[in-house]
Design goal:
By secondary structure, the protein is α/β, with parallel strands linked by helices. It is 41% helix and 14% strand. Helix 11 links the parallel strand 7 and strand 8.
């Protein structure tokens, strides 16, 4: 068999803050290799070695050249650039704001520079175990999520494949969504029962068939004497009728005894389907008492940041549904481990997600690959934070309470990088 002579093409130099222009032949080779990989089987979910070998055969191993976070008003976006100039984008947890961006740019970025783009597990571990003494949850996890999701976006773009193909394929092409809103009006006050009813009606008019009311009870005080739960939920039920499914979320505002008493009333009088976060997030024994006492499904987990915390939630808390959030978990990589736990314990997954752009895209790919994510998934609705779409060439398609899983390479969104940089506040 005749051997091809060695290539005389010089290696592509390392680039920073620039996108290298690749030839049509290179793109064609990459598409061919991506298709070959897809036909070989999508079960390579988190196995990095075959991909590394594939790229070594084509043009040398893909390396991380630069990581940069940008805090813009009301979001934090993270850019990862490979050594050929290809860019991946992810979204960090928003609660950290500019502090999340500073953590990425001042500490986490250098940890991965020069490492293999496709070493998903090693990259996550390096970030986590280098920063865990700062606290494994909260700001560290928020910052990690932006990097991890950006890396998955980058891998998909390098291979010309959507992320869901890289993390195990998909069980579903589209999702029912549930509309979610908070009784906290964001101005130091709270919506009245009539205002909650009107907000629910507006979401139903957009096509949502399931509504969740976040009662924000913990923002007032634990077990308030003038409890707003039943008046608000009764008003919402009257407004939307019996055909709309309702979820109630006390936001961890109850003691165990109050949670059980109110939960029974919500079952009997309002007909709720899911009772989310009824007691403090880490009161696992209390969660188990509530779950054992009620017939309605009890859900929890939106504040948990690791597989180990979800293990304890499932073994001790005994909830029916878990609410992972890839922004809290440090990204899709850890999310897949939590999904495996849910499957092992035969528990449903309904993600916590209040961000409409890159985090919604990340959740769509993630949830498509999770066997037990077979229920409506949270979405803030097309109006909330819609101003963030100015940073993208086009929004995710919205179809009346349902969304399709993107098929474009990576996470499926194209970022206006120039605008992100121009409006960055940190």
């Amino acid at each position: 068999m005749r051997r091809r002579p060695p290539s005389t093409t010089p290696p592509i130099p390392r680039v920073h803050r620039a996108v290298a222009i690749r030839s049509g032949a290179s793109v064609a080779r990459r598409r061919f290799l991506a298709n070959a990989l897809a036909m070989a089987g999508g079960g390579l979910a988190l196995a990095a070695t075959p991909w590394s070998g594939l790229f070594a055969a084509e043009r040398g191993q893909a390396k991380i050249a630069e990581i940069r976070a940008y805090a813009v008003p009301r979001a934090v976006y993270v850019q990862v650039i490979a050594d050929d100039g290809t860019e991946g984008w992810g979204e960090a947890g928003h609660e950290g704001g500019a502090d999340s961006a500073r953590l990425v740019n001042g500490r986490l970025d250098s940890l991965l520079e020069g490492t293999d783009v496709f070493a998903a597990e090693a990259a996550w571990d390096r970030l986590y175990f280098e920063a865990d003494e700062l606290g494994p949850a909260g700001l560290v996890a928020y910052a990690m999520s932006g990097i991890d999701c950006a890396l998955w976006d980058l891998r998909g773009k390098l291979l010309g494949l959507p992320v869901w193909r890289l993390i195990g394929g998909k069980y579903r092409d589209e999702f029912d969504l549930y509309g979610s809103f908070s009784r906290d009006n964001g101005e130091g006050g709270f919506l009245t029962p009539a205002e909650c009813a009107a907000r629910a009606e507006s979401l139903v008019a957009l096509g949502f068939k399931t509504i969740k009311v976040r009662m924000a009870i913990r923002e007032e005080r634990r077990d308030p004497a003038d409890d707003p739960m039943l008046p608000c939920m009764r008003a919402v039920r009257r407004a939307v009728g019996d055909d709309v499914a309702l979820y109630a979320d006390p936001n961890e505002g109850y003691s165990v005894a109050r949670a059980i008493r109110v939960g029974r009333q919500l079952e009997e009088e309002v007909g709720i389907r899911v009772y989310e976060s009824p007691v403090a997030a880490f009161n696992l024994d209390g969660l188990a008492e509530v779950a054992d006492a009620l017939d309605v499904e009890v859900a929890a987990g939106e504040l948990l940041a690791t597989r180990w915390q979800f293990r304890d939630l499932l073994t001790r808390g005994r909830v029916d549904v878990i609410n992972p959030d890839v922004a809290v978990l440090g990204g899709i990589t850890e999310g897949k481990k939590v999904a495996a736990l849910a499957e092992a314990f035969d528990k449903g997954i309904a993600a916590h997600n209040a961000r409409p752009t890159l985090l919604t895209a990340a959740h769509l790919h993630y949830l498509a690959s999770c066997r037990t994510a077979d229920r409506p998934q949270e979405h803030p609705g097309p109006e909330r934070l819609k101003e963030l779409w100015r940073f993208f060439e086009a929004p995710l398609p919205w179809a009346g309470g349902r969304m399709r899983v993107p098929d474009a390479p990576g996470l499926g969104l194209r970022v206006d990088a120039a605008r992100v940089r121009a409006e960055a506040i940190a």
